[in-house]
Amino acid sequence: MSRQVRLGVFGLAGLGLAAVLLIGFGGLPAFGHAHELYGALVNRTEDKLRHATDVVTALNFDIRAFDTLGEEFILFASVTGVALLLRHLRDEEDEDEGEQTPGIEEHRFAGASEGQKLVSLILIPLIVALGAYVVLHGQLTPGGGFQGGVVLAAGPVAILLAGRYLSMKAVAPKRLAESADAVGAAAYALIGLGGLIFAGTYLQNPLPLGAPGHLLSGGMMPLNSAAVGLEVAGAFLVTWTEFLDQTLIGPPSGQAG
Amino acid sequence: MTVLQLVGLIAVLLAGTSVVFIGDPLRQTMVLGIYGIALTFLFFTFQAPDVALSEIVVTSIGLPLIILAALRKIHQHARRQETDGDE
């Protein structure tokens, strides 16, 4: 296809897109005037029905918990895909090989300065504490399983920043990260099943709601949040470990393809 | 629209455009981080702290780590091919 033909096709498609966008923008409400019925209803009734002070978490983990189930398995499937592809590329035979390698100096990320090591070491407990806080306080303040899960997964990564990739793999071995990913995903589905058994509908809340503003409030929201946090932390760790294995301790890429 | 929201929108506009027009992938990764922080600020000023929190964790650690690892792999690959060509 020549350049002119391509430009012509782009021009036609671009005009069509521009027209659709202009018509669409014309139909938007003015800035600051979007008042959807669904949002208004949830804002007005959520605290009485669900006892959570963060409406977004109440939506994610209770009112529309089924959507979160789908999202969780999207993440699970993508991470599984990444792991399958990269392990196939590396021609992996024994997946514990990296973890058994004792020599910490052997990997190729030893460029951390003393200051960077110190800051990383100080940051590790703070990151993990912040992650746990964000996961557990999802029903009270902004946050929840997803955000907290990524923060939790960043804890081991701080060990990498301190120049110790293989120590990171000792703290968060691949098998542990994989298990966290799988157990978190399964736990969420099972909590839903608990709703089916004890409350009559899949993912309906079977637990007491508690007092609004208390740590154990919102019924099953803290449980769901913890399940998602575990899954997300595992998922990100598996992905990062796969990518870093490729560059830091994998066999030469010329052989692996 | 408040002043902060306007500042956030302009920051996202500038940072997003910069990401597109930077040629070098390594610099692009860094500017992408700045773009993510601008987005985080924007979400925060538009009263979406949950989204802001997601954005900041993904943009500050989730994405850069993967991009940097991939860039390093590409460099290793290119260097190896160069040395293979010399032999």
What does this protein look like?
The complex is a heterodimer of chains A (257) and B (87). By secondary structure, chain A is mainly alpha-helical. Chain A has one domain (54-256). Chain A is built from 11 helices and no strands. Chain A has helices at 3-26, 37-50, 55-63, 65-90, 97-100, 114-136, 145-161, 165-171, 174-198, 221-249, 253-256. The two termini of chain A are 31 Å apart. Chain B is mostly helical. The longest helix of chain B has 38 residues, at 49-86. Chain B is elongated, with a radius of gyration of 17 Å. The mean pLDDT of chain B is 90. The A-B interface holds A 31-32, 54, 56-57, 134, 142-144, 146-147, 150-151, 154, 157, 236, 239-240, 243-244, 246-247, 252-254 and B 1, 49-50, 52-54, 57-58, 61-62, 65-66, 69-70, 72-73, 76-77, 80-81, 84.
- Helix-strand sequence of chain B: HHH
Binned, the helix content of chain A reads: over 70%
Number of domains of chain A: 1
Average predicted confidence as pLDDT of chain B = 90
On the 0 to 100 scale, the average pLDDT of chain A is 85
Low-confidence stretches of chain A: 95-105, 251-257
Give the chain pair forming the largest contact, with residue counts. A-B, 25 and 21 residues
Number of strands of chain A: 0
Sheet/helix structural class of chain B:
mainly alpha
Indicate the proportion of strand residues of chain A. under 5%
Tell me briefly what this model is.
Chain A is mainly α. Chain A has helices at 3-26, 37-50, 55-63, 65-90, 97-100, 114-136, 145-161, 165-171, 174-198, 221-249, 253-256. Chain A has one domain (54-256).
